[in-house]
């Protein structure tokens, strides 16, 4: 956890520099206007050039980051910050300043788009929300420190706007050095490029342990986009507990699973009607009888959080020695590195350890040796077959240390595979590999010794067993081409084969990706039109009416300096509220925080509207307005501020995540520009009460949108989240066509 937290803090320095830049330009533009004799249009262009730069760079940042990686783009962001700071320190005229502001916008755009993406791809699922709230916290902290600096410089006889803006280059050097020397590449991106060995090393450093086999397997499975999936329900226990006194027909229904200790195996017995997730999939997510307006995907996600196991989610919910499912390893065996480079070194001499056995009993460590087809079996010695891989016992990718507890894949989820076979029309055996995301159901009777009988068979109350919901889908490493070869025994395609296929814009048309884009784009639009820019614009005026500026003037502080000090005070109020959000975002959840804080925003805006319509006296109006503004700021940064970016970094598949987040960020910047430049026009045409009234209506729409469309993603691995979107969207589409 410490490794992931430190990496997140380093990455988030880019957001701190964004906050620093926002505050310094707000202060420096006062002096720029005086020295360069700027008109209103030129003054607005100096401020807006950063927004324009951020919008331009965002149009291509996602696609480029998917190609070259997240780390190089963050290095580029720090470089833009540094160069722009130096140019602003020198700026002899307005044109040079505009160029510097454009480059600064490039740095801002890359940081805002890619830092949440990077944190989500490196953080454990249990603290992903907390770490992804850091950009909001450090961004506000950067604004506070910058306002303090600007306030101090404003007390000088001749404040230098060049120095105010140029100071940005100093922390940019620190950011550049930390990113270059300390920040690793995202392990998910490395896996998406087939660089398994490097991804494993990065994960080991981030997690602080050697055994990262389960999470490595999860990252590989995250390469898939689309595909069929279904929910099943299992009772899982030691092999003897679920097979005692069973007739042969019942044994055929059982699925064998393997644990990390030699000679120890587990079986899963299908059951029906006991899983909350399964029930939601079959009933609630398609019918939603109780809440007909709620998106079925929201109901499906909610079923995961309705009945969590009594124990915490920081460790695997399954019994400790369940491990990473397929981690049986021979400690004396040769260590193989599952990587595209090692595959090339092995050449055509690589042969399978599966030995042609057509039983799933040899499924001990999945993804590593070449597959054996039925033709190979008939001919005797197996031959190499391109980059197709089968089961290899000595794989280091999914190897666990015997006796060491596994962390699963996070949030109480476990990753497994099952091999199914059937007799083909030509008499040959046909098989298929399915991955299984298992989630223990925390319902009465699912813990050890709590009941004697469960649907599907008699269970010895003295033995270990759990009841689990299973999300079953085709593995990312079992292609249609491989299925056509009729492999005997478990067989998979090497990740290098999978990643070489690439993913284009067509992937955005996948039902799950399409539904996720609706959520991401929708919440970004509504966030920008919810009033934060208007309230920030109005804050100095409110505090001036409250007599704060008069009090500061009596202390010898000028109006400009007083404005900067007021802004510093406002941003300081945000920090403890963001800290509260960091504490609860992984406990209460993203959806709950939004549904709780948005109504407070609505009430605050409505009171501000009433205060500007009803004549209640200057003092009372100032007091009420000040209280409403403070409450609005505090609640906004607890929910609607950080959570849209958190959600957008969680809900897209690995291979299109950069592209999709860039689309959401582009919408964010376009809406930011629209809101910023329509606010003065709206103030002139409909007044302050009208502006706040529109913002209140948008907040009402936001609450409805969150309630209907935004699912709860806390604690869930990214790959499971995207799979839920995929299966939910397909089921809804299928229900519409019936």
UniProtKB/TrEMBL annotation:
InterPro entries: MFS_dom, MFS_sugar_transport-like, MFS_trans_sf, Myo-inositol_Transporter, Sugar/inositol_transpt, Sugar_transporter_CS
Compositional bias segments (type: Basic and acidic residues): 331-348
Keyword hit for Membrane: yes
Topological category with respect to the lipid bilayer: Multi-pass membrane protein
TM helices/strands, residue ranges: 43-61, 73-92, 98-119, 131-155, 161-183, 562-581, 593-613, 619-638, 659-679, 685-708
Compositional bias (Acidic residues): 349-361
Superkingdom as given in the UniProt entry: Eukaryota
Localization (cell): Vacuole membrane
Primary location: membrane
UniProt keyword Transmembrane helix, yes or no: yes
Domain (Major facilitator superfamily (MFS) profile) ranges: 7-714
Assigned GO CC terms: plant-type vacuole membrane
Reaction equation(s) it catalyzes: D-glucose(out) + H(+)(in) = D-glucose(in) + H(+)(out); sucrose(out) + H(+)(in) = sucrose(in) + H(+)(out)
Molecular function via GO: transmembrane transporter activity
Signal sequence bounds: none
Alphabetized UniProt keyword annotations: Membrane, Phosphoprotein, Sugar transport, Transmembrane, Transmembrane helix, Transport, Vacuole
Stretches the record annotates as Disordered: 331-365, 370-389
Pfam families on file: Sugar_tr
Entry similarity comment: Belongs to the major facilitator superfamily. Phosphate:H(+) symporter (TC 2.A.1.9) family.
Name of this protein: Major facilitator superfamily (MFS) profile domain-containing protein
Organism expressing this protein natively: Daucus carota subsp. sativus (Carrot)
